[in-house]
Design a protein that fits this description.
The protein has about 300 residues and is an alpha+beta fold. It has eight helices and nine strands.
């Protein structure tokens, strides 16, 4: 009788999946912005190694709002450009407003239009250090007369450190269109040049822990979602069920797996932008697996 309660999901899955290329895309990472002095801020980033196609330079964009969509980006003019081996840019400002920055790489095929919060676009505003200037004397309270004056660089006094959390775009806003018409055409043209149909993933991934029905607990409820919607490829229902499931505190292991399944559900629903941000949340837990799905999602954003 007990064996009748065990449902095996493995029969619904294909035995293997193809390996995908591990080339590095022309996307900068670790973007950061700090006030340099009373008139400028400094933007820094990290360049990828051996990117395909090869990086020929970088464009720096600035806006008073966080840069999250290509429609928004298409209305901006770069505040500066740098060579392919440069990883810093100083922007001169005439006011003390908060600004957000985005760095895009140019290649022999054109600009690689991918926006990833906290990766190549800042998620926290930065303004010039208007209250201080370089080498200004700062009085330290309750200090002795001998040590009363202290010289402090402005960048040490006022810092807005970007949040290290990816995926801060409000992806549930139906009115927000990630790709504008102009950006879509450009992305489609670029995508045909260095992406292929084999990058699309067609097989569901189910973790071994979820192949057999548990007796109870969070694992049981996750299994029911997988059985009733996910493996039946009703991904719209799977998205709703998994979002509801994750809205309640679950144990850490189940939360990680459910978050990955939500990324898959977005992927197979052709919501590739949402899929990228979902896989970014679990990339530290499943690095190789997440990379494969993120790479494919980025490819398909271009071809969408």
């Amino acid at each position: 009788m007990k064996m009748k309660k065990i449902v095996i999901l493995s029969t619904l899955l294909s035995a293997g999946s193809a390996l995908f290329s591990q080339t590095t895309r022309p996307i900068v990472s670790d973007i950061n912005s700090l006030p340099k002095n009373s008139t400028s801020v400094k933007i820094t980033w990290t360049l990828p190694e051996n990117s395909v196609p090869e990086i020929t330079g970088c464009y720096i964009y600035r806006d008073s709002r966080q840069i999250t969509t290509f429609d928004q980006l298409s209305k901006l003019t770069p505040v500066g450009t740098v060579d392919a081996d440069v990883t810093t840019f100083t922007d001169t400002l005439a006011d003390t407003k908060d600004y957000f920055y985005c760095v895009l790489c140019s290649t022999e095929n054109g600009v690689y239009n991918i926006i990833l919060p906290s990766v190549n676009t800042t998620v926290s505003g930065v303004h010039v250090a208007s209250a201080y200037s370089d080498n200004q004397q700062v009085i330290t309270p309750n200090s002795s007369s001998k040590n009363k004056k202290k010289f402090t660089d402005a960048s040490e006094k006022m810092r807005d450190i970007p949040l290290p959390t990816p995926g801060l775009i409000e992806v549930n806003k139906k009115s927000q269109n990630i790709l504008g018409t102009k950006a879509m055409n450009t992305a489609d043209e670029l995508g045909r040049k260095y992406t292929g149909s084999k990058s699309k993933i067609t097989k569901l991934h189910v973790f071994e822990e979820d192949l057999v029905c548990p007796e109870s607990g969070d694992e049981y409820y996750l299994f029911k979602i997988l059985k009733n919607s996910f493996v039946k490829k009703d991904f719209k229902k799977a998205v709703n069920d998994l979002v509801d499931f994750l809205s309640i505190h679950r144990n850490a292991k189940v939360t990680k797996r459910a978050s990955f399944y939500l990324g898959e559900s977005y992927y197979f629903s052709r919501e590739y932008e949402k899929a990228v941000f979902q896989f970014l949340k679990v990339q530290n837990d499943y690095p190789e697996l997440s990379k494969k799905w993120i790479d494919s999602s980025l490819d398909l954003i271009n071809l969408k």
